[in-house]
Amino acid sequence: MTIGIPKELKNNEYRVSLTPEHVAALAITHRVIVQRDAGLGSGYSNSTYKEAGATLVDTLQDVYAQATLISKVKEPLPEEYPLIQAKHIIFTFFHFAASKALTVAMQQSGATCIAYETIEDEHGNLPLLTPMSEVAGRLAGQQAAKYLEKPQGGSGILIGGVTGVPPAKVIVLGGGVVGTNAAAVLVGMGADVLVFDISKKRLKELTSHFDGKITAMLSTAKNIGAHLPLADAMIGAVLVKGAKAPKLISKDMLSLLPPNTVVVDVAVDQGGCFETTHPTTHENPTYTVDGILHYAVSNMPGAVPRTATKALSRVTFPYLMTLVSTPLNRLDDPFKKGINTYKGHITNSEVANAFQLPYTALSNILD
Ligand SMILES: NC(=O)c1ccc[n+]([C@@H]2O[C@H](COP(=O)([O-])OP(=O)(O)OC[C@H]3O[C@@H](n4cnc5c(N)ncnc54)[C@H](O)[C@@H]3O)[C@@H](O)[C@H]2O)c1
Description:
With 367 residues, the chain is of the alpha/beta class. The chain has helices at residues 20-27, 46-51, 60-66, 100-109, 130-147, 177-188, 200-209, 221-227, 305-325, 333-336, 349-354, 362-365; strands spanning 2-5, 31-35, 55-57, 69-71, 89-92, 112-115, 169-173, 192-197, 215-218, 233-236, 262-265, 286-289, 292-295, 339-342, 345-346. It is built from twelve helices and 15 strands. An eight-stranded mixed β-sheet has the order 3-2-1-4-5-6-14-15, sandwiched between helices. The protein binds nicotinamide-adenine-dinucleotide. Residues 117, 129, 132-133, 136, 173-179, 196-199, 202, 219, 237-240, 245-246, 248, 266-270, 298-301 line the site of nicotinamide-adenine-dinucleotide.
């Protein structure tokens, strides 16, 4: 099998799917082709990939033409759609529920699309999403602090306050990996943090983990609404596996927030949990709606590629090794949950439901 690593096309996306170290291990038994300059943004030169045993190719077209297994970071962009064929297995983040165009293009290509974010472990966790959620969660705390500054469009509150002046109050919606990592950074900076989650078990874990340094509350419209007038910043960090993010804050509810409140909606990659969220880029990360500053970059870890590439490659590599040596029908069930499209069918029910498209159970079609 030939494995291809393209250079990422998304705005300011500097990650690459595999480090030269992992390419070297893969290249012992398989042909690996790497698009020239794919690793530069993460600090890996072309020669390090060559020394690792990879063949360098010049164009994206070369990668898709020569490889059957494509190892990527972010979802294919429209200019990649025509290059994707039924022979391909595409192994990357897709976040299908946020884009009907992507879903339909991948379905029609006939390719097998394996989404990092829906692969599970034996406990139902999302092992390939987790490291990027750790990165994005920590960055979310940093971004909230930065955009609270007046010259950045914020209300001019120092996140941790100072002696005699209270810190910022930050509401975190969703206390999973992103929410916990955001809270950790925010608590470290001295913010007053309130986390909402629908899982009572998770709320207990958070209270114990932070040893009383945060407030953890049940996520209901009433509880959230009551705290909005007190917020200086909010982090959106909810997830329902594979599905569109639930909209917890409607456009009307923005009027309950103080002017210049900062909203960092990390869940933007699944459509966002604010009705007013739309995806932004690192180049142009914020916009304002009704006086509320929104930050909604859908590839936040792309800004810290030297950390994020290592963290991603470390977790995807063992799955890639399994993929190159195991027929799809022999993969274990938690791994198979990553298969979102197969031979022209949508095989993830949440994705099919998101766009009212037909769903086919993978077990009915996997030979
Ligand atoms: N923008 C980016 O660059 C970026 C990077 C990494 C992750 N993400 C996204 O961040 C989101 C969160 O990821 P995660 O890894 O923390 O997921 P997670 O599964 O670890 O946590 C999600 C949490 O949301 C909670 N939740 C679900 N519905 C809720 C509701 N109605 N109210 C409150 N809480 C609710 C769940 O109980 C869970 O604790 C995902 O959409 C993920 O794809 C974005």
